[in-house]
Q: What sequence folds into this?
């Protein structure tokens, strides 16, 4: 637990702290019905009293937030509701009312906030230290009701949320009817197929369907199956009632671990609701990681387009002991979406159990998710145990083990950013700071790469039919109705050569590092670290246009990555300096110096020296009509941005005049408060991605120029 800070209260109160915005309003403060005194409130935006969030011109605190073990309230609020500071307030009287002073100290030392509830919104009063004021001072942040309390526990435990799809992501399930329809469809296709290789493949696929159909039929007729000459009987598994859910039932189940298969009956009284379920290999590895050593790394949710009773039973088969989702939470955490609708994290977390920024998704389809949630989706290839039964184990790392590695990397990256950047900077903030002084908050989407699912895995054809029930088909099948099937497209995989190969590309949005290997790169190196630091510090949006920057080849992934990073640094440094030279005056630098040296890239080119402009061309204009001539032996240049002159230069040669104009322009840009100029300075994003299509991870850095 972090050591409580003693708030500095050195000087005297009164006035608008830190040159805050005008429009102060005096309001009465209450904790419940207890009067705390009067406070002066300063809106963060222009508009005075009308822009303040408190109704009836009074501040009525309803309760204190849960105490946080290691995270100050402002860090939590910046994570779940970035830049949501609505106003500042401070006690009006000196000395302050004793009750208000006690409230301030409690909030400050115990990492609590004072909560004002306004409709479906919570206003959190965050106790802030002050450089100037001697009275209690607060920032007021707004957040959706209930989300703060849920986030406190997750951030304290370093826990995120993970949302699973079911059908063709974790399982493939079939009834007798769906088995028969799939066999019939394949038989018709085989009859019209001339390619003997395809005919052979379809024949083998039909055989696998028939084998599992016969096991299901035996289960329906006798409550037993004959597996490799061994008769296996049913076990009555108790299904406990969930809140507001089904009654207590005993369900007949046969588990065949050697086949990764389970037979179950959705309605124990109706044999035709029997289902044959294939579990995706390596599910146990992923499940064990999520709850390893009793420590919950992720809060688990399910979002599916299947019928609810079916979805609950499929999840019970996957998590029979309720270690991932407790019985108490099951009703809220298994979310069923109407077939054809978009899935969304907002719908998944309608109970306000988590903020979407702190959640990742495992699904075999990207497009079924709301567009704003797609950056948080890790796409896995659809599970096809009948069409390609060996595909799961063909890769060195099974699909769900890759998903486990991705989840581990996402969690590590998120909390590394949270601890090393957000927390550190929040502890430095004072009451007098402004909104823009708040640090960037991590988002799960920063550490995931949305994969292209338009190509089939391993360069093979897409499975001709969907292998199991999904969406509305589940309900129709269990009720004996026909349902038109549509096929899913699957993500692509490419084979890599014996040598590992790493490619670094520039994209319109920044820099992208990609490799063709199968496992995540975890070993840092000087060059990789420096490249990441460039992403954090440097403005580079205008440098690249989807061109290849560097390639590294080595016997190991780390060797290839280091080589690619080293070459990329040299190329980026050369390109960057050549572009920035006429703007920032960075001329005649030694571009051959090794990165990371005393006078290397990071120390010569820092954020404070580099300005990113909307248009790299047209910045300098020759002030004479003939740009190749001099005026009275002198060259005249002016630096322009957005039609405004930022600097002028005069010299005996062109380069000297241009350099002089650039230096004057740079000084202007650093000190300007003109909004017409500032609007041309934009934030930059650098993306660093590693891994193959099936195990890709990414790090995103957002940089702003002030």
A:
């Amino acid at each position: 637990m972090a050591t409580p800070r003693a708030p500095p209260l050195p000087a005297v109160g009164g006035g608008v702290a830190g040159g805050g915005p005008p429009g102060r309003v005096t309001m009465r403060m209450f904790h419940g019905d207890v009067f705390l005194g009067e406070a002066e409130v300063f809106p963060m935006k222009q508009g005075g009293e009308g822009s303040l969030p408190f109704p009836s011109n009074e501040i009525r605190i309803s309760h204190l937030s849960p105490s946080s073990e290691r995270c100050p309230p402002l860090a939590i609020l910046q994570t779940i509701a970035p830049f949501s500071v609505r106003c500042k307030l401070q006690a009006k009287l000196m000395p302050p009312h004793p009750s208000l002073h006690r409230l301030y100290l409690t909030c400050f030392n115990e990492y609590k906030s004072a909560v004002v509830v306004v409709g479906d919104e919570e206003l959190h009063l965050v106790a802030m230290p002050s450089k100037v004021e001697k009275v209690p001072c607060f920032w007021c942040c707004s957040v959706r009701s209930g989300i703060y309390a849920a986030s406190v526990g997750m951030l304290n435990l370093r826990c995120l949320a993970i949302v699973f799809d079911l059908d063709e992501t974790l399982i493939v399930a079939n009834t007798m009817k769906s088995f028969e329809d799939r066999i019939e469809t394949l038989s018709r296709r085989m009859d019209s197929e001339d390619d003997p290789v395809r005919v052979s493949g379809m024949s083998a696929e039909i055989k696998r369907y028939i084998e599992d159909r016969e096991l299901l039929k035996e289960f329906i007729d006798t409550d037993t199956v004959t597996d490799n000459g061994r008769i296996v009987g049913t076990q009555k598994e108790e299904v406990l009632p969930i809140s507001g859910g089904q009654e207590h039932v005993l369900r007949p189940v046969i588990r065949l671990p050697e086949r990764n298969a389970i037979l179950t009956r959705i309605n124990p009284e109706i044999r035709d609701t029997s289902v044959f379920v294939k579990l995706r290999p390596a599910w146990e590895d992923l499940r064990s990681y999520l709850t390893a050593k009793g420590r919950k790394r992720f809060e688990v949710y399910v979002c599916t387009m299947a019928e609810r009773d079916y979805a609950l039973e499929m999840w019970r088969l996957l998590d029979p002991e309720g270690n991932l989702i407790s019985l108490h939470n099951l009703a809220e955490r298994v979310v069923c979406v109407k077939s054809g609708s978009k899935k969304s994290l907002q719908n998944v977390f309608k109970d306000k159990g988590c903020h979407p920024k702190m959640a990742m998704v495992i699904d075999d389809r990207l497009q079924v998710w709301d567009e704003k949630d797609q950056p948080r989706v890790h796409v896995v290839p659809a599970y096809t145990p009948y069409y390609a039964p060996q595909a799961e184990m063909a890769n060195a790392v099974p699909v769900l083990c890759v998903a486990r590695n991705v989840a581990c990397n996402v969690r590590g990256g998120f909390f590394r950013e949270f601890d090393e950047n957000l927390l550190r900077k929040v502890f430095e903030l004072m009451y007098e700071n402004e909104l823009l002084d708040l640090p960037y908050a991590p988002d799960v989407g920063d550490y995931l790469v949305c994969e292209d699912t338009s190509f089939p895995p391993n360069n093979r054809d897409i499975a001709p039919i969907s292998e199991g029930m999904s969406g509305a088909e589940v309900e129709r099948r269990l009720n004996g109705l026909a349902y038109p099937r549509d096929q899913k497209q699957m993500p692509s995989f490419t084979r890599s050569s014996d040598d590992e190969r790493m490619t670094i590309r520039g994209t319109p949005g920044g820099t992208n590092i990609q490799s063709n290997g199968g496992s995540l790169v975890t070993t840092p190196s000087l060059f990789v670290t420096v490249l990441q630091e460039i992403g954090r510090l440097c403005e580079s949006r205008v440098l690249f246009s989807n061109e290849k920057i560097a390639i590294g080849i080595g016997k190991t992934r780390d060797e290839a990555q280091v080589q690619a990073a080293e070459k990329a640094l040299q190329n980026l440094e050369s390109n960057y300096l050549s572009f920035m030279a006429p703007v920032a005056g960075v001329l005649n630098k030694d571009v051959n110096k090794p990165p990371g040296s005393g006078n290397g890239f990071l120390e010569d080119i820092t954020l404070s020296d580099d300005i990113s402009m909307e248009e790299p061309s047209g910045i300098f204009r020759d002030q004479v009509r003939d740009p190749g001539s001099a005026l009275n032996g002198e060259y005249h240049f002016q630096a322009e941005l957005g039609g405004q002159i930022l600097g002028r230069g005069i010299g005996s040669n062109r380069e000297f005049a241009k350099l002089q104009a650039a230096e004057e322009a740079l000084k202007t840009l650093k000190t300007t408060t003109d909004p017409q100029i500032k609007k041309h300075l934009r934030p930059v994003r650098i993306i660093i991605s590693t891994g193959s299509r099936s195990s890709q991870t990414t790090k995103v850095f957002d940089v702003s120029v002030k």
